[in-house]
Specification:
This protein is mostly beta strands. It contains 1 helix and 7 strands. A hairpin with a 2-residue loop joins strand 5 and strand 6. It is globular.
Length: 95
């Protein structure tokens, strides 16, 4: 579904997604980094735990909300990855 075009010159940064280590290309949005690492659902919503993922990739739809460095409800498409960033997908009922 989502594949990165080959670019050997892109610098990589280490990030943590849901407690596991991953890499991302410097300059990627958090949403692009999640997609590139195989995450298609970033959160679930009530009442039926409906899976949500990025839709617009430009900050309009709010379907890509994640927790970044303990800050909840951040639009993943509007934030660039940084070295050591901790990203958590959000699930209905999480506190």
């Amino acid at each position: 579904m989502f594949a990165r075009l080959p670019d050997a010159a892109t610098e990589r940064v280490a990030i943590v997604i849901d407690g596991r280590p991953f890499e991302a290309a410097r300059g990627d949005s958090v949403a692009a980094a999640l997609l590139a690492n195989g995450f298609i659902a970033f959160r679930t919503t009530e009442p039926a735990a409906t899976r949500r993922g990025p839709y617009c990739m430009m900050g309009v739809c709010f379907d890509c909300l994640v927790t970044i460095d303990d800050r909840a409800n951040v639009q993943a498409c509007m934030v660039s990855v940084e070295e050591g960033m901790r990203i958590r997908t959000q699930h209905a009922g999480d506190e």
